[in-house]
Amino acid sequence: MHILIAADSFKDSLCAGEVGENLASGISDVLNTATIEVLPLADGGEGTLNALIDATNGYKKFTKVHDPLMRRIEAPIGILGNRKTAVIEMATASGIELLINEEKNPHQTTSYGTGELIKAALKENCDEIILGIGGSATIDGGTGLMNALGVTFTDNKNRKILPRGGNLHEIKYINSENLDKRLKNIKIRIACDVDNPLTGKNGAAHVFGAQKGAKKEELSFFDDNLRHLSRLLTQTTGFDEAHTPGTGAAGGLPACVKAFTEASLENGFDLIAELVNLETQIKRSDLVITGEGKLDFQTQYGKTPWGVAQLAAKYNKPLIAVGGIIAEDSKTLYDKGFDLILPVLDQPMSLSEALNEAPELLRQTGERIGRIMLLKM
């Protein structure tokens, strides 16, 4: 029997590779003749970098960048096993998790550090950059990122502005003559898991602003700022995609990146599945196991387990999903290609206990899966 474990990370606990290895350990204790392959996955958010370097035998390189509040930190870029593809995770430089609650303020936060990560990747002689944009702390429309790459933003007195979410309305002119020339020779693929446009009631500010620290009464202000930026981008570059699905992700970051580069905006799961040859791996498996920290009704809207389930159904492979939290509404997933959903927790415990015990809980879950398979045999 060939078993494929293709799971996402368990947030704040284990990366995707560790989830898979612990499940595999438990299964092996029972099914010692089974061949088990662990294929770490992600959907473009946090964990994308680790999943891809683990799946392709790549490595990390660390560099000094600025965090969302322009403080110096160290963040990684990933180089995949082919040595031609770099992976950048926006969350490591411009992520909300880098801030304490009192610091979450989209007036002040910037994506500048993510641009610095791209500059570091350009030094590696790669021909492709995968940019995962989940978990951002900004609503700056990607202006900070492009500023780090050489685009200048000036006010009505021609004074340079360090663009942030709160001062986009002050920008009068955009100049790209000093844009890093190396960007012309590299393909940028933006991994995204939402389809929100840049502006409007379903746009970056109104939908995601609150989680980045914006007050309810400020959402229209940030939306107006992004509208202003969109008009300037159209005047400067001809880019007119404010209503294009996905440009509202990560505080509108895809808007600026697409305006000044040939970047493509792609479904995060599909992109990563392609890079790790997921469909081929599923096709030759007898059983597929997936999972993530929480399984619920929203899993079917582009999350990793959902994508795995659709491919498993395509090739008529049985699918088991495991989760740290199994919501009551997850039962709907049984009509969507999921054959069995298993909770990792087997007794009441606090969140901190669950996080600390995650490796053993997953190993025990793997053992239960193994015993279920023995019954089928």
Largest sheet: 6 strands, mixed
Shape category = elongated
Structural class: alpha/beta
Q: How do the helices and strands follow one another from N- to C-terminus?
A: EHEHEEEHHEHEEEHHHEHHEHEEHH
Taking pLDDT < 50 over at least 5 consecutive residues as the criterion, the unreliable ranges are: none
What would a concise description of this structure say?
Strand 11, helix 11 and strand 12 form a beta-alpha-beta unit. It is built from 13 helices and 13 strands.
Tell me what the structure shows.
The protein is an alpha/beta fold. It has 2 domains: 2-41 and 276-376, Glycerate kinase, domain 1 (Rossmann fold, 3-Layer(aba) Sandwich); 48-269, Glycerate kinase, domain 2 (Alpha-Beta Complex). 34% of the residues lie in helices and 19% in strands. The strands form 3 sheets. It has a 6-stranded mixed β-sheet with strand order 3-4-5-6-9-10, with helices on both faces. Strands 2-1-11-12-13 form a 5-stranded parallel β-sheet, with helices on both faces. Strand 4 (72-79) and strand 5 form a beta hairpin. Helix 1 (16-30) crosses helix 13 (358-376).
